[in-house]
Amino acid sequence: MKLHWSPRSPFVRKVVILLKETGLESRVQLVRSVAAIATPNPAIMADNPLSQIPALVLPGGEPLYDSPVICEYLDSLHDGPRFFPAAGPARWTALRRQALGDGMLSVLLIWRQERMKTPAQQLDSWLQAFALKISTALDRLEDEAPALADSGFDIGHLTLGCTLSYLDYRFADLDWRAGHPQLASWHAGFCLRPSAQATVPDDAAA
Ligand SMILES: N[C@@H](CCC(=O)N[C@@H](CS)C(=O)NCC(=O)O)C(=O)O
């Protein structure tokens, strides 16, 4: 299998952590692919018309995207504990947590684009809306931190770990740990996992 990959993408990081956690890493060839919102990349578009990464190409040539679909597909290929609970309340909680983490990342990616504009180009109402959505999500996650800490490591935990690490990577100035001590403590445990340590986002990487 081929994976359109970047060492900086939090959505790609979800997939790579899952590969490492499940022992599937050797079955996937990583292909460095540059995805930029205003510069569609033909090499990615050959497999994902939206020019977004991650995109996985199966041995028969069929492409899969986006990260929730790729992660659930890969989770069907191993015999270890499932990252996507099969049924019942645990499944819906895991999928909701994944949706929250992915949704926060989507807000953060466009917020970052807005912040890179000159002050004259920036829209204050957008900046305020992004800040409110992220701070509200963090407050909700602080409430949920004890439940996160008590419930293993599934696709919800994996996604939220990547999301909080993306805040450290691109939004360090937000100081998200302030006011969220239980969430910070849970995230510290995520950062200790070998799969997380091997995938820390890095601007200096190729
Ligand atoms: N919902 C997608 C989002 C993927 C995404 O936005 N990836 C970014 C890189 S972190 C990207 O490819 N951006 C380029 C673009 O949107 O054109 C997923 O979960 O895979």
Automatic annotation (TrEMBL):
Question: What is the protein's name according to its record?
Answer: Glutathione S-transferase
Q: Which organism is it from?
A: Herbaspirillum frisingense
Q: Which InterPro entries match?
A: Glutathione-S-Trfase_C_sf, Glutathione_S-Trfase_N, GST_Omega/HSP26, Thioredoxin-like_sf
Stretches assigned to the GST N-terminal domain:
1-82
Q: Which CDD domains match?
A: GST_C_6, GST_N_3
Q: Name one Pfam family in it.
A: GST_C_2
